[in-house]
Amino acid sequence: MEPNLPDVVLWSIPAFVLLTVIEMVSYRFHPDEDAAGYDTKDAATSLTMGLGSLGFDLLWKIPILAVYMGVYELTPLRVPVLWWTVLLMLLAQDFFYYWSHRGHHVIRILWACHVVHHSSRKFNLTTALRQPWTSATVWPFYLPLIACGVHPAALAFCQSANLVYQFWVHTERVGKLPRPFEYVLNTPSHHRVHHASQGGYLDRNYGGILIVWDRMFGSFAAETERPVYGLTKNIATHNPLRVATHEYAAIARDVRAAGSWSERAGRVFRGPGWQPVPRPGAEAAVPVPAPVSAQAAGGPAPVRAEAPAPASVTAAVPAPAPEHTR
């Protein structure tokens, strides 16, 4: 029997709208020069990505639900939906969310999905709505819950509750909370670190509702310096289609330019910043100095060219750095 659980996302939409309006008004009357604040085009892009994700998620849910129901019917285990089992399911779902979130940061093909959420250089409540259109990469991380007897509808409820919780942590208008909350829960302070592009903040604070997973598995970083939001290589577009697909396009370019199957696999399945190790004997191109006569004449110095490498060396030169964003 399918559990009858409320659609928490649908019920939360009025609160999303109200809180966003309050945050916008707060910047109008109490501006903060150091905060990222709002930009009209950026906010519109985030809203468009959020609305688009609703439609695409409906498409992805059809095959995913079929797999989940197949596994659920095969397992002899059943977890009843009671008030205390729901709390345990929320805890378990948050644990697997941590590993899903972490996986989507350290495996490039998964990062191509999640990078959408990090593509804004602003950090406000509309950023929470900037969701990917290719979320079909998330479902394998929750198969253990289904195999343990959690009904797919109960899992969907837990995922929705986790998503709703994370809405309010996308703000700069809330400082640090009292220490007990900061120690246990994911807070705006912790999530600002997660969205920052500084080296010491990269790939930190993956938790959804709880931050204790990060403390347990070594991925926690406290907020010290003010975060700089966005990617290490930002994209200069507000086009929703490009926002949704730019990293997939970068992967395709890198795979085409790769010189071996092992490099192709690395471009897809290793981390977003992965580079192949140069083969022994590879030599860098030697720049040709500008002609002395041109410089002595006082004219503009010509563009420095690169001497072509010998054929035996050219094959060993690694492919150019990927155009991925991190």
Describe the structure.
This protein has 326 residues and is mainly α. It has 13 helices and no strands. It has helices spanning 8-29, 40-74, 83-106, 108-114, 143-147, 152-167, 179-184, 188-194, 212-217, 240-257, 261-269, 292-296, 311-314.
Q: Strand-and-helix sequence, N→C?
A: HHHHHHHHHHHHH
Helix content: 40-55%
Alpha-beta content class:
mainly alpha
Major sheet details: none
Number of strands: 0
**Average pLDDT value?**
88
Could you name the ranges where pLDDT drops below 50 across 5 or more consecutive residues? Answer: 284-324
Q: What's the end-to-end separation, in Å? A: 44 Å
What general form does the structure show?
globular
Approximate strand percentage: under 5%
Rg measurement, Å: 24 Å
> Helical element count?
13
Topology (SSEs and partners):
Blueprint: H1 8-29, H2 40-74, H3 83-106, H4 108-114, H5 143-147, H6 152-167, H7 179-184, H8 188-194, H9 212-217, H10 240-257, H11 261-269, H12 292-296, H13 311-314
Helix pairs in contact: 1-6, 3-4, 3-6, 4-10, 10-11
Question: What labels describe this entry?
Answer:
about 325 residues; mainly alpha; 13 helices; about 50% helix; about 0% strand; globular
Summarize the model shown.
This protein has 326 residues and is mostly helical. The protein is built from 13 helices and no strands. It has helices at residues 8-29, 40-74, 83-106, 108-114, 143-147, 152-167, 179-184, 188-194, 212-217, 240-257, 261-269, 292-296, 311-314.
